[in-house]
Fungal lipase-type domain-containing protein
Amino acid sequence: MTKNQREAKNASMCLDKVFLNYELKKHINVKCDETDGLDTGTYGKLQLLVESEEIIYRNKTAWYGGGNMISFGEPRTGDKEFADAHDSLVQYSYRVIHKKDIVPHIPLNGMEGFHHHRTEIWYNNDMSTADYKECKEQESPFCSDSHLDFMIGDHHRYYGMYMSYYGRRNCTGDPAN
């Protein structure tokens, strides 16, 4: 495993712990930025800034629809046209956000046209209970957009797991550390 590895090399080892019946169609690693080669996550504040700049000002990729995305801490990935197309083509889609996670607010709403698709599941707590708010609208002001104090630490911890370390260990060991 290289120092750049941010997630499980074998995704099925993690998925097996959560799902009884699933089919992993494809696992793809792509070059996300110029700082880290093949990149599978955001590592540190500098990379967060570089990735934000690249998302906003570099060439954009066409999306033709399909898939189910349950995402955790997803940044804004497209414009309003993309969000509308996503919402009409992908019926089962949720963006889960932990408390003050900064990444879902990058790029800023409307900056260069960026806009979130629906549906946001927002945990304004430590995620240890099923106490969350569901906002079905795009860019709802009643979920995570309802506050302005963001933290990178909330991006790394979801449901009590330190996501990067747990993934690097192929979802084995103590997920909290």
Notes: Residues 23-31+65-158 form a domain with the Rossmann fold fold (CATH 3.40.50.1820). The first strand starts at residue 30 and ends at 31. The CA atoms of residues 166 and 172 lie 7 Å apart.
